[in-house]
Structures are given as structure tokens and as C-alpha cells.
Amino acid sequence: MSSPEPIAPGVWRYRFGTPEEASPVALRQADPALDRMAGLLPVDECPFAGADFSFRTERRGCVLTAPFDAEEGVFGFGLQLQSHLQSGKKKHLRVNSDPVADTGDSHAPVPFYVSTRGYGVLVDTARYASVYVGTHLSAEALKERAEQRLGQQQPGLSTEEIYRRHAFGREVVFDIPAAAGVDVYVFAGPTMRDAIRRYVLFSGGGCLPPLWGLKNWYRPFAKDGEAEVGALLEEFAKDGLPFHVLGLEPGWQTRSYPNSLVWSERFPDPEAFAGKLRSRHWRLNLWEHAFLDPASPIAEEIASHSADTLGMDGLVPDFFDPEAERLFAGEHRRLVKGGVAGFKLDECDNSDFISYSWSFPEHARFPSGLDGEQMHCLYGLAYQATVDRVFREEGQRHYSLVRSSGALAAPFPFALYSDLYAHDEFLRGMINSGFSGHLFAPEVRHAASVEDLVRRLQTAVLSPVSQVNCWYMPHAPWFQIDRQLNQAGVKMEGAGEVVKLVKQALELRMRLLPVLYTAFAHYHREGVPPFRALVVDTPEDRRTWSCDQQYLIGQSLLAAPLKAGERVKEVYLPQGAWRDFFTGKRLEGGRTHTLSDLSLADIPLFVREGTVLPLAESAEGWSGGGPLTVRLHVYGEEKAEGELYADDGETFAFERGDCSWTRLTWTAAGGLKADGCPSGEMFLLDLANPVLHAGAAPASDLP
Amino acid sequence: MSSPEPIAPGVWRYRFGTPEEASPVALRQADPALDRMAGLLPVDECPFAGADFSFRTERRGCVLTAPFDAEEGVFGFGLQLQSHLQSGKKKHLRVNSDPVADTGDSHAPVPFYVSTRGYGVLVDTARYASVYVGTHLSAEALKERAEQRLGQQQPGLSTEEIYRRHAFGREVVFDIPAAAGVDVYVFAGPTMRDAIRRYVLFSGGGCLPPLWGLKNWYRPFAKDGEAEVGALLEEFAKDGLPFHVLGLEPGWQTRSYPNSLVWSERFPDPEAFAGKLRSRHWRLNLWEHAFLDPASPIAEEIASHSADTLGMDGLVPDFFDPEAERLFAGEHRRLVKGGVAGFKLDECDNSDFISYSWSFPEHARFPSGLDGEQMHCLYGLAYQATVDRVFREEGQRHYSLVRSSGALAAPFPFALYSDLYAHDEFLRGMINSGFSGHLFAPEVRHAASVEDLVRRLQTAVLSPVSQVNCWYMPHAPWFQIDRQLNQAGVKMEGAGEVVKLVKQALELRMRLLPVLYTAFAHYHREGVPPFRALVVDTPEDRRTWSCDQQYLIGQSLLAAPLKAGERVKEVYLPQGAWRDFFTGKRLEGGRTHTLSDLSLADIPLFVREGTVLPLAESAEGWSGGGPLTVRLHVYGEEKAEGELYADDGETFAFERGDCSWTRLTWTAAGGLKADGCPSGEMFLLDLANPVLHAGAAPASDLP
């Protein structure tokens, strides 16, 4: 049996059989952040002994077995929309854009899991592996299991009831097709949170988006040209809606679906257009996908560096072929130099659940030697890396979107998104993403009701990307939620009231910018996911294992956004004391609180007792590009502390130390203290008038 | 390139690479019906030349390519519930009990398809192959495709719209995991119908159930014991409902889910019970599954002949291990000798779409050397063969149910069923089953409304198995459709009227028995599926390609059962003339007819003009066991013909020629003639008073 080889601080590798040449680690696109890993608590011994694993090869591929017990909570496997706790489940880690059931299929499946016992396991494969988390008992366990079942004397009277009566097995099994071997990476804790941090830092550390990326995004109607976009910006300005990122499809997918990467005549002077946007403090994000139309200037050259099969009727560039990568990056360099601040990389996954098999098949062949299955597992990653490299070479940070991802993706500043739209799945997906070094954008598209619209937006503003994506509607959904009437230009009744609620949510996002930016800095430096499940911080508290509709943001916030129809909300607050973000009301942790009499304006958001929270001051001038005034909000009665990260917000200078961490402390006796000033020009710290949220203390200035 | 080897009349085999040892043909459980194949139209040349196929192996397995063109209609792939025409689709042929989308997953996927061009292709694999039917274009086709697309100048405004704009590729691709080779069997036509017949006869010929199997079935509440069953039979007799097959779970899955194959104390004397049923002209079908509880008398002996992993917490017998087969068959021999007439073989598939992975995993290992994936592809088949062999050895025909099947299953007298329940999918599944030598039972369980109940029953009586399956309700659904109220014993209002409609449908089934039995005899002798899609008989008529809610029964019937909510029904009648089964009204073929003013009693059922239809006479004495009086119904004005098959209805004597085919002819001038008498004692032919259905001719005696 293999013995563990230390690879990085607290990370060991087991090698079983002969691993394939193409794997997430073998083709990794970012280096491990070894320097930053050194800051983690040292762990001297691998949490697994060689004998803990078993491995065998068979005609079908290979089978790896890791220990598991029924008292263990297993989480992860990438963007899982339909389940949170994975113990007892089978997951087929296949890249798919329409996971219609809890199968494991995902835009971004990852063969990585973490356990409440405080370790993580990455199975380094670019195959559609199936994982069985304690699903099956071995034949030897027959008698023992029969004794457990003796109590069951009545027949089940529904299929569900019959199928529910099962026991946990004692293994996590990875069933890996095609491969004759695999490397397994074990990440030590000692805590679950530390294991995730090691995985993120081993991936290269979490991304740090430019500050503008954390502001509010809007994607207008796909038919809009320059004039329509201009009118829209005017309208947002008039309504005081603080949007700062514009997402566009520049007409390059218009003629049909493959992409030319050439702006259409709807935008006659793209560079001037981008410049105009920037002068109004907007950034531009372009919607694209990788499958190239013959009208693209690089089509002819890239053809021989593409798959042998078309995808979406276009050429499928092989990002692992240096020439394809160079050509594709070249087109993006041109765009970035022309003022584009980010991209939305669409269609880089696959689908087995709709009638049209639009992406390349698993049996496609690529010049680099990868087959279609391996390429699906790595395509989103390589696509991100190709685009990301362009920005890095330009010395410009970006924040973008991507529809597929995989293992070791944390350093890429891309958030995942989905064409699916269930609000509860969007929340669960965002929360689960944190286990595997991903971000997820629960964007707002349309809504079934005003309540649905407002609730979805309240979730979006408390997520990695605050985006409204109205590509199929000419007006914003707060103008008219009905799609047909929206297209007909009919404003809905009461739209004015809805705009107020929309503004309130978007402003909350703006106010939270210093907190969010600091949370991402922690992600970058220490590997702590800025949006994460409650169980990450408190795995010892079993009540957090099922919390898949509420989550932590940064060090001190807990969000439990409402969904349409929720008139009463149960929120579980972990051990310790918490305060309502808006009212300062104190709530005891370690128990479930029932929120009732909820209004459309309510957003359940809680602050850990003893926190100094740096919030951007609500300002009329949020449409401007100047620094944000940061006021400090104190949640506590005796003492409180917090921190504020800052840098230039745009470049990679922070990686060379050009940044600041300002520690903020407050005591009832001594008042507020800050250990220095934020660097750069993003934040103006106003220490003079902290807002005290101390329950019976003076009321806050907030609604 | 491989050259075709003739295997059977009109059947050729291509061998590519080194095929696996375990495959449907290699492990076939019935011999080809070579004698009967000789009766087919001879075809001298293989419809495919070696160069038509391409084949390659790769690390993932192997890839086989067959020609396809966009004008070709491809059908088949086993029990497909969500689509009919497969051209343009990708299908993943994985064994699954809950296909939630049109993915190819199925209780009974089969790597066999037929083309409207008049040939069939069986890819002989026991792997979860993916089939791409003209889904993709090769990279070379880029420019050509771009020219086709030039007309598309507007962006798509919905995901569906974007994904719909695709072209057909020119290949059918089988992507087969793990294997280094595969045999391909090509079935000549010249017509599509002939290709299906060759496949069915190559499988061993279609099954011929005992006559009782075609009568009406009822499965009562799972908690019922002998007393409750007795009361139920009394009630059916009182209401005049002609049920003759009782389906039971004899309490052997009661303690928990694995099966002991031992009757529980609810049935203290099983043999006496079975005898009592038979004396009342009922037959007994027992619900079971293969995964064994340790309480089973054979558990200890069979353990070392079972999988290394439990399924449903029970032992998984390896049916390809002769000792497991012997032990398992032994238990069934005991039951059959004790009066059991058939079985319902449950849970022999798998599921990836529910949260509990209850069946054995793909990586399970079996003593016979098969792995779990291969075993899933073959388990339903081997289970059927094991049980079927017992009946054959006892010289007793049976008609049973099974939840999973595969290739070459036609000779096994089992109908498939599903826990899914969409009425349109049940119809489509029944119709699609015919392409691959399967039967499907669209059973009635519960209903959302009285209309839903009646419509579902009207479908069931026009299907391979006419079954009401109320295992989770103590009373029949016509007593109370609401599940809760049914369990509470509350009779619904108007139940009396509903019983009349139920009786009418069940009586229709009884009247059709001679037609159905004859249709199955054709299935056995000539391979013509008794229930089949319109396209099978008229592939040249493109309008039939989309007919997935109406179908042919035997030689002369066309059924288009109604579903709840259908107040108006469009029915397409193929070329030729047709008559309404009930009224004799003449309808021109080659066009769509709109039926309106539909009442709950209406059942759209049509007879080919010029048919003499042998129908069992409606009789009060249908609860008895005597022969059925057959009256002849003439649909036509000048001349008509028909036939009636008969044998002893119970044994295998018919295979030795102990049976009769009675040809029936009628002319307006000469009246009715029959060329002999039906053998056996099943039918009493009454030639004296034929019923003439000739439109303006004397009205029929039917409602």
C-alpha cells in the first residue's frame, strides 16, 4: 500500500496505480500558495494511514475506498444545488448544466470533500467519477444489519417509505472510469475550516476581485445597442439605483450561436463606448462562449488546434494546445486593451438533460491528447485560466463569470452561475460552493411576483456577485415583472414602490463593500471562503449540518435571506451572541429563532456580538468614482473589534505588499481606535461618529 | 475493416476489436428462432458494407460509428418514456428506475435501434453506452454549416430558442465504456417492420402468455391477509367486475425490505389459499424482488454466490453463477408447485435519481466475474430467465411482470412496469417498447380525478397487461380515489356510476381476448409486436413518425386512448380505410380526424376496413372458467377476413404444433366462412350470427 508523501504544509499525496497524465493537479493553472500555507497551524501527521485506503483497478477503471463512519458529516463535491450534507449519498461527478435531480451532475463538480472530522480529500481525476458516501454495506455486514432491522415489523406503504429504510456503509468509494491509477491528496485540519483553507491555499489562495466587481451588476436586453444602453443608464441614475457593472452580449453571437468575438454593428465604436461607460464609473463585462464561428478572425488559424467535433456548430478550441490558447488569448487582449473589464464565459459545460446535445461529446478528440470526457472536466478551468492570464499580463484585476469549473479553481476571480432558477437551490449552491473553492452568483432574472423579485434581489446583494440579468427583457423587472408585458413596454402598477425596495437592497450591497472586500482579502490570504456554510465554522454543532439556506459572510455576518412565501422564518444562530444588523437587537446563539411579521423590506442579517463593522456610508454620490466614506458600526456593549482591508482596488500591487489591514477596536470605556489608515484611495475612514448598536443603547440611524 | 458474417437469415455480424465476454448475445438465455426466421422474406445482402462503420478503441473504451442521414427516422433503444423519434438525440443507455428527463436512462435500455430505411442495428454490449443519433457535426463541416445558418440574423431570446438551432450530424455514434471491442448485429428488412421481426425472432420469438394472463389483474393492499382478499373477491363478484389475476405481496418483504421468499403468518396456508383462488378461476401472481433477507432458507447457501455488496440491505444473487441460479430457482419451484401462477420481479434495476442508492453499485463484484455495470445491464434478463425456466420445467406457461430488461428479451413472458406515472409517458413507453421486443404495463394505481381513473383504466385494458395495482390503498380506486379517504374507508359520492365505467372497460378487455391472444401468437411465430407504433407498419408516411400516443394492436386494431382533460382528440389514421370499433362508422385513412363531444365512456378504437374480428361474447358468466363464446364482427361492406389462433392456453403443447389458426372470411354475397375449428377448449366459435359493422348497414348490438 502507498505511503503518504508530504506535498505542502499539512497536505499529503498518496499515489495509487498509474495516474492519468491529464488531471486537475497535473494540468493546474496556478501554483500552490505555499508561503501563505505556512501560516496555518502545523499538522505533523497525515490524518490517514496508508491502510485506511484501499485501491483496485478493473476493466472499467479503478476503485478507491476511503474510510467513513455514520457519525461523520461529509460536504463538498463542488456546486451541488440539491443537497448539502453528502453522507449517505451517491454522486456522479459529471459536468452538466441542467442537473434535474440530486445526482451529482453539476456545472462544477469537484472530486473533493471535507469531513466534520477535520480533513479534506481530493481525488485528482479528470473523469466523471461516481462517489458513494457510505451508501452500501458489504456482504459481510448482512447479519448485523438484519439484527438492526428486527424492530421494523410493518410493511412500508409508499415507495419513499420503503427506500428510506437504509443503513450507512463504512466507506467513501470513488468509482473512476478509464483510469489505471489516481493520486489522492489529503488535507489536514485540525478543523474542517482549516482543511478547507488548506485546500484553497493549495489551489493558489482565494481570488481578490477589484472593488468595482463587488458593486451591483446589470445585464440588459440582448438586442440592445449603444443607444438603448445609454437610455438605461440614464434611467438608473434618475432612480438613484447604484449599478456599476454592465454586462453585454456585443452582437457576436447574434447571427447564430457560435461566437465570432467581433462586435456587431449595434456597437459601431466599441472602444469609445467602453470609454464612455468608464467615464460614468461603469465597467463593462462581455458575454461570450468559446465555440468559434467561421466569421471569427482566428477561426482559420485555430481550426487545427480545435476538437474534431463541433460544439454549438462552432470550433471548440483546445485550451491545452498552446497555439489555441495564444490565439484565443490574443482576441481577449485586444478586447481588454479596448476597455473590457471582464467576461461571462458561457456554455463551457455540457448537458445530458435537454434534448439537444449542444456541447462536444465525451468521445471528441483534442490535439493536446485529451478526450472529450477529460476536457469537460477541465474545460471551464482552462477557459478561466486563458482569460485570466490576459488580465494578469495587463496588470489589471478583473471579476468575471463562468458556467463551469472544477478542482483548484479558487484563485480565479470567476463566479459560477446557472440557467436553473429555484431560489432555494441558488442559496444552497452558493453555500455549497464554499466547500470547494468556488463562488456562485444567484442572479436575478425574472420573477413570479413582486415579492419573488424583491426576495431574489435581497439574496443577490448578499452573494459573491450582485447581478440582475435581464437579457431577455427590454426593461428592468421592477418596471414590469411579466415577461410579455415587459417586452410590450407596459409598466406595472406600483412600480414606484418596488423601485424603492430595489434601491434599498442595492444600497445595502454598497454599504457592505468594505466588509465584503475584507472577506475576500481573507480568502486570498488565509483561504477562508467569504461565503460559507455554518458547518464550516462549527462542525461540532450538528444542528448546523442541515443549514443550507443561511450562511456566513466574512468573519462576522450571518445571512438568512427570505424567499417568496416566507412569512415566518426559522433561523439557527450558532453558539455565542448575535445582533440584528439593522436594529442591533441581541439574539442568543445555540438556538433557533423564529422571525415573524416579516415585511418586504426585511432582510435577516446578523452580526456576531463584539464586532466593529466597517460600512460604506450611504451616499447620494454612489454613482461617482471617488473613495467610499467608511463609518464604523459597533455591535456589542463592552468591547468589540473588527478589521478593514484596503489596497488600490485595481492592480496586483497588493500581492507585493501594497495593501493595508486596519485593526479596529472599541471599548465602552475607551471608544474607538484604529491602528493606522487604509492604504490606497478606496476607503475614507471616519472614526468620529461610530454607530453603536447595543440594544437598549441609542437607536441606530438605520431603518 | 471487418466484413459481415451471416449469423441467421437476414442477420449479419460485424466484429470490431475484442468484444467483452459478458454481453447480451454471449449470455443469451434463449436460442434464436431460426426455423421461424426462415419464413421471412429472404435478403441476400447485408444492408451495410464494412466501410459504412468506423471503429476505434481509446482509453475510455471504444467508439463505433454507423451511417445516418437527416432524412432518416431512428426509433428504439428500449423502454424510452420521454421521446419517440430518436433522430437528433443523445441517449445514455443506463439502467435506471426513475428517468427524470429524456436522457436515455431507463428500466430497460437496449442498444438496438431500427430505421425507417428498413434495417436494425444491435450493438452487443452490457455497458452503459451513450448513443449519439446524428447529434454532432465533424469539425470539417464548419463552413458548410455556417452557410446554412446565414439566414439567422436575430439573436435568440430564450435558452430554448438558442439551443434549438442545431443541425443534424451524419453518424450514429456508440460511445462504449471499458470495452476494447464489440459485435454489431445488422438486421435486414426490407421494411422497418421486417427488421423488427428479425430482431424479435433472433431473440427467440415473441412470448405467448397463457390466456388467463391477458385477462384483468388486481393487486390489493399490501397489508391484506387471506380474509381481506376473500372479501375483495366477493365485492368484485357482486359488482360483476371480471378480474382473474390477483397480485400479492405475501408478507415476505414485511419485516423490512430484503426478501425471504417465505410467506408471512398473514397467509397461514399458502397452498390452500392458492387452491381456493384457482377454484374461483383466479390466478395468483406474487410480488418479490431478488435481494435476499438472512431469514430466507437459502440465504446461508447463496451468500458465497452473491455480490460482494448488499442491495436493499440484502444479498444480491449472481444469476450467472449456476449455484445461485439453482438455489433461487428451487425456491420458485416450491412456490409454483404450491399454486403460484406468476411473479412480479421488482427492484432489479437501479436508480441514480433518488437520494438513496438502494441497488448494488456499478463497482460491485460478482462470483461469475461480471462487474456491477455489466450485471445491471443483464440482471433483469437473467432474473426473468431464472424464473421462466422454472415454469418451463413445470410445463406451465406464465405471464409475469419485471421492472428491468434488456436486449433479446422478447421470448420471456414478462411485461415491464414503472413507479413513474405520467399517463402520456405510459402510453409512449408502451408504444416504444415494441421496437425492442418488450411489453409494457401502464398499470392503474391512483388517480387525480374520476376522469383520470377512467382514462387510465381505458389505456390499461388496451395494453399488454390490464392491471389495477392498489398496493397502498385498502379499497379499489373506484370506491374512493382520494388516498387518505380510501385508507379511512370513506366511499366517494357517485361511486356506483364509476363502477359502471370500470366494468365497461374491463369487459372490453374480456371481449378482445381472442384478438389479443391471436396477436401474441403472431408475435411468437412471426415476431410482429402485438402492441406497436404506427411507424412500424408505415415508415414511408412521415406523419406517423410523431404518433406516440396511439398505436396498433395486432393486425387490425388502432387504439388512441384518451387522457384526463382531453375533450377533443386528434387521431391520425394511416392510409386505407378504418371503422370505429363501436359504431362501425367508416373513416378515411391518410388523414387526421378530430374526435369531439367525448364522453367518459368513449374509447377511440378503430378497426381496419375489411376485417373479421373475433370477439368474446359479453357474458354474465365471465367469472367462470369455461370456454369463451366467440362471435365474429365484420368491419366492411364487400369482403373481410380475419383469423383466430387457439391452443390449450396453459402448456407448451402449442410449440409442438398442438394449436390452430382458423381463417375467417366473409363476403357480402357468401357470408361467413371458417376453415376449421379452434383447437383446445378456450374458444367456442359461433358462426351463426356475425355482427355486421358497415356504416349504413344494420346497427350493431353494441353501445
From TrEMBL, chains A, B:
Alphabetically ordered keywords of this record: Glycosidase, Hydrolase
Residue ranges of every copy of the Glycoside hydrolase family 31 TIM barrel domain listed in the record: 208-519
GO process annotations (BP): carbohydrate metabolic process
Pfam family, one: Glyco_hydro_31_2nd
Example of a GO MF term: hydrolase activity, hydrolyzing O-glycosyl compounds
InterPro entries membership: DUF5110 (IPR033403), Gal_mutarotase_sf_dom (IPR011013), GH (IPR017853), Glyco_hydro_31_C (IPR048395), Glyco_hydro_31_TIM (IPR000322), Glyco_hydro_b (IPR013780)
Limits of the Glycosyl hydrolase family 31 C-terminal domain: 527-613
Domain DUF5110: 630-670
Family assignment from sequence similarity: Belongs to the glycosyl hydrolase 31 family.
Protein's name according to its UniProt entry: Alpha-D-xyloside xylohydrolase
